[in-house]
Amino acid sequence: MNLITKAIAMTGLSPLAKTCNVTYQAVRRWEVANRLPRTELTGETNYAQRIAKLTGNKITRRQLLQATSAGWLNNS
User: Fold this and answer.
1) Which residues contact 67 (CB under 8 A, 6 or more apart)?
2) What is the Cα–Cα distance from 16 to 47, expressed in whole angstroms?
3) What does the alpha-carbon distance between residue 28 and residue 5 come to, in Å, rounded to a whole number?
4) Is the pLDDT of residue 76 over 60?
5) Fewer CB within 10 Å, N side or C side of the chain?
6) Whole-angstrom distance, CA of residue 25 vs CA of residue 70
7) What percent of the chain has pLDDT over 90?
8) Which CATH number fits domain 3-74: 1.10.260.40, 2.130.10.10, 1.10.287.380, 3.20.20.80?
């Protein structure tokens, strides 16, 4: 199970989208890609921090950023 799927299972899709101030469709795109958007790596957004807080740090910011980085490197 990827981390976004795990976060959705833990918190629900709507609360996760609301916490990140995005649509549920955006969260589903992250889930399919198994990563957060590139803007997370450039510091333009802070979704990983928000998700970590929402999950009680059961999914950490570091885990999310590592998965995102790996995902972008594999698709370069």
Assistant:
1) 2, 3, 34, 35, 36
2) 10
3) 9
4) no
5) C
6) 22
7) 88
8) 1.10.260.40
CA dist 48 and 28 (Å) reads 15
Cα–Cα distance list, 73 to 10, 36, 38, 39 (Å): 27, 13, 11, 14
Please give the pLDDT value at position 75: 66
Q: Are 29 and 22 spatial neighbours (Cβ–Cβ below 8 Å)?
A: no
Angle, CA of 18, 52 and 15, to the nearest 5°? 20
**Which residue in this structure is represented by tokens 């999914």?**
59
Does residue 56 carry a pLDDT above 90? yes
The single-letter code of the amino acid at 25 is Q
